[in-house]
Amino acid sequence: MKTLKDMLAEARQVVPEEGPDDLSRRLKDREPIVVIDVRDPDEYRDGHIEGAASISRGFLEFRIGTAVSDPSVPIVLYCQTGLRSVLAAKALKELGYQTVINLKGGFQKWAQSGLPVVKDTPLTTEQIGRYSRHFLLNQIGETGQRKLLRSKVLLIGAGGLGSPTALYLAAAGVGTIGLMDGDVVDITNLQRQVLHTTADIGKPKVESGARTLKALNPDIAVIPLPVRIDVDNVMDIIKDYDLIVDGSDNFDTRYLVNDACYLAGKTNIHGSIFQFEGMATVFAPGEGPCYRCLYPTPPPPGLVPS
To answer: The whole model's pTM is what?
Structure first.
């Protein structure tokens, strides 16, 4: 009769193992892998790896088809210490899944390595009502909404581009919004910069903007940054955010934000507009060109109207 030790030894002969750093690199490089947490649901809720599907070990063979329809897609399994998951990985290989990897040391080793951990907190009754229409969308659902609530977005510029962007980010439930602008509200702003009102004239844009966003959605945190971004502060400011939205109105800032995002590995959402024409572009480091790749040098001063 086989002992547990025998079963584990057999599983490790056919199942490759990778450490937390290897999985972290795969996720950072956005490799086409599926990560599955085979622990019990209460363990998953107490903390898990971002993006991991929760399928407890007892249901794995029955539910794997809903998570991975193509048996050639690489799968990484993990449990608390790596024991349950290595046995589960062997079972998936026997079902015909071609590349199944066990996370060595499991979730415990991942957390001890200082890698990011997601802990689900129950949604409040108000949150369930506020975001109920998101729950109906397959592309978002409750999982996506929780991720939005954990997300941090830096918005550079609270003007014509920044105003509608900020309103929709707040309405969608992006948990933390950094609102950066060094200007004050002017009467000429009010026909398009919908974050601000007549009563805000002369006040810092980030002050009126933060007040408007909190009134729209008290559920979120708004961080007012009443400064202009420059070479001395840019790296320190962007480091705490998941996504950077550049709604600036000058080329110096656009090139600075682009270069900083490239160096920091941050995705840069860039937008610009002139009269009735506009453009929006996503610059993701390592996945495509950056702003400077498309426009190596800024145009001469005065050539492009603002």
So the answer is: 0.78
